[in-house]
């Protein structure tokens, strides 16, 4: 019996990778075993509607081909479903794919789809939407806001945005954080990060022991500090010495409530995509083993 295999492709992802993608992928999937459909996104959030169409078509495997945003859109549709999720990482950050050891090389990633095993991974949820690698607010959202207006290569975009956000003056909001385990904080943080995987993208991590199969989220808080101290912490993170960062708080949680002093349009990011919360209140929880991934 043929398996229905859908590839949902973001044609804007990956510099020079898309032009011959169907040929690169198709050679790995025998017509005897697979009925292959290629679908291309044409606008924002299109990947999610294409994934829903693939579900209605009876797809057995749905593969996101793109960056973290495309992966988030497709995987969000498959949470709690029996349909298998796969990914061909074509973005610049590739947080979830890096955590799952899915290669950036297209041919090798396709081989993972053929020969890989199915793993049930945890899914993070912020209010009514999902994340698979991380969510947060503070400095990371400022970087993403600055990056949205850049025009150079992806890595240079990111580096430029980090520098721009670092030196730009911005107000830090006070937040109250209460975990399901009974821990509470009232802080004015430089950064609040909730991680499911151990990757933020670009091989950067704030907690390398984080796991997508432990049934827990990792809450990381970096308090407001002088810029020189933040520069030092940034250097340690880039050198993969984040364990030496002083003032980095880490708590394992199943769920957490975050109430911000900003009641309107609190800017948060989920898997690198900016979103806005109208009332400044976030309920964040883990959904254990909610997504089936080929990896």
From TrEMBL:
Which UniProt key words apply to this protein? ATP-binding, Kinase, Nucleotide-binding, Transferase
> Record keywords: ATP-binding included?
yes
SUPFAM superfamilies in alphabetical order: NAD kinase/diacylglycerol kinase-like
* Residue ranges occupied by any DAGKc domain in the UniProt entry: 1-129
Keyword Phosphoprotein annotated = no
**Domain of life per record:** Bacteria
Molecular-function GO terms, alphabetical: ATP binding; kinase activity
> What is one term from the GO cellular component aspect held by the record?
plasma membrane
Q: Quote the Pfam families the UniProt record gives.
A: DAGK_cat (PF00781), YegS_C (PF19279)
Q: What is this protein called?
A: Lipid kinase, YegS/Rv2252/BmrU family
Q: Which organism is it from?
A: Pustulibacterium marinum
The organism's taxonomic lineage, starting at the top: Bacteria, Pseudomonadati, Bacteroidota, Flavobacteriia, Flavobacteriales
């Amino acid at each position: 019996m043929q398996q229905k295999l859908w590839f949902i492709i973001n044609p804007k992802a990956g510099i020079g990778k898309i032009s011959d993608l169907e040929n690169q992928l198709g050679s790995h999937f025998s017509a005897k075993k697979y009925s292959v459909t290629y679908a291309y996104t044409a606008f924002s959030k299109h990947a999610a509607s294409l994934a829903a169409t693939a579900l209605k078509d009876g797809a057995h495997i749905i593969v996101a081909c793109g960056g973290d945003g495309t992966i988030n859109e497709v995987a969000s549709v498959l949470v709690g479903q029996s349909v298998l999720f796969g990914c061909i990482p074509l973005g610049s950050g590739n947080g979830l794919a890096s955590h799952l050891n899915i290669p950036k090389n297209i041919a090798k990633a396709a081989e993972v789809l053929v020969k890989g095993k199915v793993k049930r991974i945890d899914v993070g949820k912020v209010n009514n939407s999902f994340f698979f690698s991380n969510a947060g607010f503070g400095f990371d959202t400022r970087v993403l806001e600055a990056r949205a207006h850049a025009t150079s290569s992806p890595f240079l975009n990111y580096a430029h945005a980090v520098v721009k956000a670092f030196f730009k003056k911005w107000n830090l909001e006070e937040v109250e954080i209460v975990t399901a385990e009974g821990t509470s904080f009232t802080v004015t943080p430089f950064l609040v990060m909730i991680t499911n995987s151990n990757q933020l993208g670009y091989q950067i991590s704030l907690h390398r022991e984080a796991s997508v199969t432990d049934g827990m989220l990792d809450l990381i808080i970096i308090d407001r500090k002088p810029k020189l101290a933040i520069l030092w912490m940034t250097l340690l993170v880039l050198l993969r010495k984040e364990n030496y960062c002083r003032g980095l708080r880490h708590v394992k949680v199943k769920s957490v409530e975050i109430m911000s002093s900003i009641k309107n349009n609190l800017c948060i990011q989920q898997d690198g995509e900016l979103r806005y919360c109208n009332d400044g209140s976030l309920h964040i929880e883990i959904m254990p083993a909610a997504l089936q991934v080929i990896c």
